């Protein structure tokens, strides 16, 4: 049976199909709501903020008994209020990453949820845990096994004035920590944590330096960090949105039995065969953002009544704890920060 879905905001888009059925969309303006609805083959109802449009508010949408779940993809600072509203209305919720603007806000939201009698599912839309190469890399590293020896996460890119994300006003003038390093960087924390989890590792401490290379991307757009795992092994975390002449994205992890390298379109595995010789294998993928898979996982959770652990608020909180730790270490000129996940 399809799950009846509404989208609040104009971020994640899920087509009608055999998993979810799009019933309604909401945005702050009728124009953006209509634009989102136009992308769907379903005849979705439109809701938006307007004193002259009675019955069209987000509260009116949430009163509908024929809607099981909502996807919330609004600016970071606006999310907590909508999450609470939707859960109070009895809806299952898939909300965008990051879980909140900072750790304190995220922890308060989780405590509120745990203290309430609400039984609906709350999932966080961290699509990096659903991108095919990351999923494959996790599986391959788990198969290889062994003890981590080192790892790295590298992303270098330039967000310029023509970038669609830069064109959103709330990203141009962020009222939250880290700017693009919070909004985008939390993805890469999730990616490296998911890969390390294949061999039972997570982050226990870190140190970092941050910088602002492009003034328009304030407060900071670049972080170079060292992460230490629970077993005491270290790796690097390098992310910049202000670097024009160096590009690429790669997550790498090595154990004493082999290694895995993940890019947006490939997974390379190196390990030893029965004769002790190194062998390499590589698998290619079409580029994808993992959004369809995360929405399908959310819908499957609703049908089964069992939340997908990759979408848990606790996982998303862990990503934010690491990211905030990197930002705070940078502010303190490379101070070592303990990470409590």
From TrEMBL:
What Gene3D superfamilies is this protein classified in? Dihydrodipicolinate Reductase, domain 2, NAD(P)-binding Rossmann-like Domain
A Gene Ontology biological process in which this protein takes part is: NADPH regeneration
Q: Which domain of life is it from?
A: Eukaryota
- The chain positions of domain Gfo/Idh/MocA-like oxidoreductase C-terminal read 146-336
Q: Which Pfam families match?
A: GFO_IDH_MocA, GFO_IDH_MocA_C
What GO cellular component entries does it have? cytoplasm
* Residue ranges annotated for the Gfo/Idh/MocA-like oxidoreductase N-terminal domain, each copy included: 17-111
A molecular function annotated in GO for this UniProt entry is: nucleotide binding
PANTHER family recorded = NAD(P)-BINDING ROSSMANN-FOLD SUPERFAMILY PROTEIN, NAD(P)-BINDING ROSSMANN-FOLD SUPERFAMILY PROTEIN-RELATED
Q: What is this protein called?
A: Gfo/Idh/MocA-like oxidoreductase N-terminal domain-containing protein
* Annotated organism of origin: Exophiala oligosperma
């Amino acid at each position: 049976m399809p799950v009846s879905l509404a989208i609040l905001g104009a971020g994640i888009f899920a087509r009608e199909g055999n998993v979810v059925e799009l019933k309604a969309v909401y945005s702050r303006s009728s124009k953006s709501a209509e634009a989102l609805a136009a992308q769907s083959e379903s005849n979705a109802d439109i809701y938006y903020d307007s004193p002259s449009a009675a019955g069209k508010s987000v509260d009116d949408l949430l009163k509908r008994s024929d809607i099981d779940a909502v996807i919330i993809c609004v600016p970071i600072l606006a999310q907590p209020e909508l999450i609470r509203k939707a859960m109070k209305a009895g809806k299952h919720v898939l909300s965008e990453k990051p879980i909140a603007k900072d750790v304190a806000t995220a922890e308060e939201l989780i405590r509120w949820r745990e203290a309430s009698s609400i039984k609906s599912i709350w999932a966080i839309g961290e699509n990096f845990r659903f991108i095919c190469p990351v999923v494959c890399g996790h599986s391959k590293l788990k198969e290889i096994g062994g003890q981590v020896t080192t790892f790295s996460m590298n992303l270098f890119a330039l967000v310029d004035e023509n970038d669609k994300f830069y064109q959103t006003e709330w990203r141009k003038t962020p009222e939250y920590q880290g700017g693009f390093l919070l909004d985008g960087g939390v993805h890469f924390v999730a990616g490296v944590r998911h890969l390390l989890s294949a061999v039972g590792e997570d982050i226990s401490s870190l140190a970092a330096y941050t910088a602002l290379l492009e003034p328009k991307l304030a407060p900071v757009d670049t972080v170079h960090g060292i992460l230490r795992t629970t077993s005491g092994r270290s790796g690097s975390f390098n992310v910049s949105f202000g670097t024009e002449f160096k590009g690429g994205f790669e997550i790498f992890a090595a154990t004493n039995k082999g290694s895995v390298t993940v890019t947006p379109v490939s997974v390379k595995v190196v390990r030893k065969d029965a004769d002790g010789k190194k062998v390499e294998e590589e698998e290619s993928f079409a580029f994808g953002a993992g959004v369809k898979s995360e929405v399908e996982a959310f819908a499957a959770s609703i049908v089964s009544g069992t939340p997908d652990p990759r979408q848990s608020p606790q996982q998303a909180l862990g990503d934010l704890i690491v990211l905030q730790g990197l930002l705070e270490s940078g502010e303190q000129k490379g101070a070592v920060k303990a990470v409590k996940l």
